[in-house]
Design goal:
With 123 residues, this protein is α+β, with helices and mostly antiparallel strands. 19% of the residues lie in helices and 36% in strands. It contains 2 helices and 7 strands. Strands 1, 2, 3, 4, 5, 6 and 7 form a 7-stranded antiparallel sheet that branches. It starts with 7 loop residues before the first strand and ends in a 10-residue tail after the last helix.
Length: 123
């Protein structure tokens, strides 16, 4: 399979600084596996080789999410080297659950001794 026959996806979302972006994700062959490549400003993310282009794309999305990218979605723009335009539906990737910060022991204990707020109707 020639490089021109590989898939391409449009990737859109918000970067780690909450700026909207849209960039092309390209694939390259690595023997009988595939790597996904994204170039965005000064950032270049390339996955390890995976058995399918879809697997490499999923790993790329997960990598970006760990780096703080949010509301990511992709749309296949080329399939086997054939231009699809915007015929394909967008695939959305749910953001990972953010863990709530654990309160420190001292903060929890201090919260026990804070007076509760008085109701506005009762002095």
């Amino acid at each position: 399979m020639m490089e021109s026959e590989l898939d391409k996806h449009q990737l859109a979302g918000f970067d780690d600084r909450e700026r909207g972006f849209s960039r092309s994700v390209e694939f390259e062959r690595a023997e009988d596996h595939y790597r996904a490549n994204l170039r965005y400003e000064f950032v270049r993310v390339t996955t390890d080789p995976y058995p399918t282009q879809d697997h490499a794309l999923t790993v790329l999305i997960q990598t970006l999410q760990r780096q703080g990218y949010r509301q990511l979605r992709t749309q296949k723009s080329y399939c086997n080297g054939i231009y699809l335009g915007s015929q394909e539906l967008w695939v959305e990737y749910p953001d990972p659950q953010r863990e709530e910060p654990v309160k420190g022991l001292l903060k929890t204990i201090m919260g026990w001794f804070r007076p509760e707020r008085a109701d506005a109707n009762h002095p």
